[in-house]
Amino acid sequence: MKPGDDIQHKRYGLCSIVDITGGVGSLFGVIVQPKTPEGKALLATDCGVPDIPLMEGSIRRLSKPVKRVVGIDLTGSEKRASGFALLSGNEVEFTSRIRTDEVLITESVNIKPDLVSIDSPLSLPEDPTKIYRDCELTLKRRGIGVYWCFLPSMKALTLRGIALADKLRKKGLTVIESYPGAAQDILGIPRKSKGTHVLAEALAEYGVTSTCHMMN
């Protein structure tokens, strides 16, 4: 990875990872599997409950162990950088900020991850007359704050996410949708608003580690 005008490359210690926690948070559904009272494993990408419609592209079981995962905290426009993180096992290898889809795709392909997790809606409403999907409505009913995917403020992000996921899949990568905020609420992981050190401690409790150092 070569830093340039398009990519502001930085490495963070665990406490600083929360600056782009969406990128790292996008990985929770893979590395954390809470249990239902019946003992069934759940993924954060299942919205934490076994009977709700899955987010587009999300999966209950992986066909092989996940070792390297790319998390992307996507923005609605290339004018603002998106968060980008790589997790190997439970260790965050690096985090970056990347502006364009072209570089997001290039970096993801070069890493050759087992999975790419994108913090963005990756599908349209099932009913074209509505601005929300079934999974979003279910989250809302369960008390999880969610923005409808086709709200005016969300439409650009949704369309960008769908297009990016399609391009990554055409490159042979496995892509899922994630909602870090919902995963954090369901798993009892505090949001960044509670304090960066509080969030960093919670990440560590779930086994997330990092040997990264800050780079100016």
Write the layout of secondary structure elements.
Blueprint: E1 7-10, H1 21-25, H2 28-31, E2 68-73, E3 82-88, E4 91-98, H3 101-111, E5 115-119, H4 134-141, H5 155-170, E6 175-178, H6 180-187, H7 196-205, E7 209-210
Parallel strand pairs: 2-5, 4-7, 5-6
Antiparallel strand pairs: 1-4, 2-3, 3-4
What does this structure look like?
By secondary structure, the protein is α/β, with parallel strands linked by helices. The chain has one domain. It has helices spanning 21-25, 28-31, 101-111, 134-141, 155-170, 180-187, 196-205, and strands spanning 7-10, 68-73, 82-88, 91-98, 115-119, 175-178, 209-210. Strands 1, 2, 3, 4, 5, 6 and 7 form a seven-stranded mixed β-sheet that branches. The longest helix is centred in the last third of the chain and has 16 residues, at 155-170. Residues 1-22 and 28-63 have low confidence and may be disordered.
General form: globular
Give the N-terminus to C-terminus distance in angstroms: 15 Å
What count of structural domains?
1
Helix content: 25-40%
What is the N-to-C succession of helices and strands?
Answer: EHHEEEHEHHEHHE
Q: What is the averaged pLDDT score?
A: 75
Number of helices: 7
Instruction: Supply the helix-strand structural class.
Output: alpha/beta
Radius of gyration: 16 Å
Q: Compute the number of strand runs.
A: 7
* Strand proportion: 15-25%
Largest sheet: 7 strands, mixed
Name the poorly predicted regions: 1-22, 28-63
Primary descriptors:
7 strands, 17% strand, globular, 216 residues
